[in-house]
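Q: Here's a chain of 267 amino acids. Please give me its 3D structure as tokens.
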Amino acid sequence: MLKTRILTALILLPLMLVALFLFSDMAWAAFSWLIVLLAMWEFSRMAKLSQPLRRAYLLVSTLLAAGLWLQGFVATAAVMVFSLLMWLLLAPLWLAKRWSLPKGITAMLLGWLLFFPAWFAFLAWRPHSAMADGLQLLAVMGLVWVADITAYFAGKTFGKHKLAPTISPGKTWEGVAGAVVGVSLYVWLVSKLGWLEIPVSVTWLLPLAMGLTAVSVVGDLLESWFKRSAGVKDSSQLLPGHGGVYDRIDSLIAVLAVSHALRLLLI
């Protein structure tokens, strides 16, 4: 399993880097939408939408995304504030109340609320194919990857106190602590390298990064709860050794959306 997981990562990471730094604006919009669309497909399966309804949902979503991009739509702070409400209020409440994954129209609306802001953020953090724009988005995505990796190894090494045993038994508070340490070092490095083109000192970046680390945990737990509610182990088997696309981007969609919303509101 570990060998398969590593091999898949060795294929996906170069593909992502090529897309990030070399794709045209249109190609990047299409590529990032494909990532989002595959996750939406997995989400719609977990929500048990009928096959005809699922196809219609994905088609309408794609046409809507294409129309927005062709019109040059840029998500405003007023639009992205819904992401803050989703990830800072609704998602924690969902986990606390253990609400089941909804079905029908409610599930489709929830899917849009989860995935469209993340796609807007994919485009906003990397508006053009310039190196600086690619590094900026890479810095945001890297925060999620560092948090995930350091949490995994810290949890494996020191984990004793369960974070949310009824939702994701493998996650521990020691893993969260490892993520906090890892992200703190990462943010300091990214700040020194100048990857983020935002006028914020490392003194302010650190607490923001800690908040985004918490958001990444919420995103991970929410998808884990959706899977438990749907009675599945993985969102799909599209990525050998990793499960599905949604399994891989559950934290990323939350961090992308919230980070972009905060940038619009605070800077």
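Q: Can you summarize the key feature?
A: The beta strands are 162-164, 168-172.
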